[in-house]
Specification:
Layout lengths: L9 H10 L16 H16 L7 E5 L7 H8 L2 E6 L2 H14 L4 E4 L13 E7 L8 H9 L2 E12 L4 H9 L1 H5 L6 H10 L3 E8 L17 H23 L14 E7 L9
Parallel strand pairs: 1-2, 1-4, 2-3, 4-5
Antiparallel strand pairs: 5-7, 6-7
Bound molecules: S-adenosylmethionine.
Length: 277
């Protein structure tokens, strides 16, 4: 796998994580509108794990787990044994710190996902990734690389931002450099990439009606007139999403190609799972 496949690159992520605060672990039951997306994600995970008979003690790997707010969630809410993988040194250190602060034990593998240690392959009942697959020009190759970590009969959940819709159009105008490290992938392309990689697609769809909170201004010089205007647009867009959550707390507004912030694919690997947990 050559570097030209990786639209962002390790130095981009190292610099990025060096500038951001360490997040708190996800708590899907926390009160407040800002936690609404996490509670919807929680519903998706509960459903996918029930379908795949994932029980406490099962092994989960998060690919691209730098500073992950999700690893403690999977340990606390689902009783899973959690591991993260990332090639960013600082990102791995921050992920361990998030787990330490949450009182959760878990491992981090510092490795390139395309060249991982052999003992990580075929070992995990659940493999998740949040915003990783779309950073590679070869989508099928990336999904195939992710799938190598899944145990026979295990489940893989791939979440990407929906850059073919309004999120992509706005991100392009707010920060072209952020937009350019993404490959826009729609629902159909994500599903077919999983099939081409040899997985069985259980479900693949747009997720949530709105969340402009996924937009960011990385790469825009701060405190310039353009930055101030873009900050205002970002704040307004964020309020629009929050208004939609307030008006539609049970999430009846249909996820769709135009307004949805994410695409989520749930897929199974071939074979029978060993259920010793
Ligand atoms: C958008 S971030 C994922 C989100 C991040 N976990 C968070 O909480 O915001 C993508 C992550 O994938 C990692 N990554 C990208 N290419 C990789 C590779 N070839 N091997 C391992 N990690 C990689 C990056 O270091 C980065 O941390």
């Amino acid at each position: 796998m050559t570097d030209s496949n990786d639209r962002a690159g390790k130095s981009y992520w190292d610099a990025n994580w060096g500038q951001t605060d360490i997040p708190s672990a996800v708590d899907p039951h926390a009160p407040g509108l800002q936690h609404w997306p996490s509670s919807r994600f929680h519903g998706e995970f509960v459903r996918a794990f029930a379908q795949a008979s994932i029980r406490p003690g099962a092994r989960l790997l998060e690919i691209g787990a730098a500073r992950s707010a999700w690893l403690p969630y999977f340990a606390r809410e689902h009783g899973l044994s959690v591991t993260g993988l990332d090639y960013s040194d600082i990102g791995c250190a921050q992920a361990l710190e998030v787990m330490r602060r949450a009182g959760v034990s878990g491992d981090m593998i510092k490795a390139d996902l395309f060249d991982p240690p052999a003992n990580a392959l075929g070992r995990f009942d659940v493999v998740v990734s949040f915003g990783v697959a779309e950073h590679f020009k070869d989508t099928v190759g990336a999904i195939r690389a992710f799938s190598r970590f899944v145990a026979p009969g295990g489940v893989m959940l791939t979440l990407i931002p929906n850059m073919v819709g309004a999120i992509g159009a706005l991100q392009k105008r707010l920060s072209r450099s952020v937009y350019d490290i993404h490959v826009p992938i729609d629902r159909e392309t994500l599903a077919s990439a999983h099939r081409e990689a040899g997985l069985e697609v259980v479900a693949c769809d747009y997720l949530l009606f709105s969340n402009f909170g996924v937009l960011n201004l990385n790469g825009v010089p701060e405190r310039t007139p353009a930055w101030l205007v873009k900050k205002g647009v970002l704040a307004l867009a964020g309020r629009l999403s929050m208004a939609s959550w307030r008006l539609d707390p049970s999430g009846r507004l249909p996820p769709n190609r135009l307004t949805s912030p994410y695409v989520l694919c749930v897929a199974r690997s071939a074979g029978e799972r060993e259920t010793d947990h």
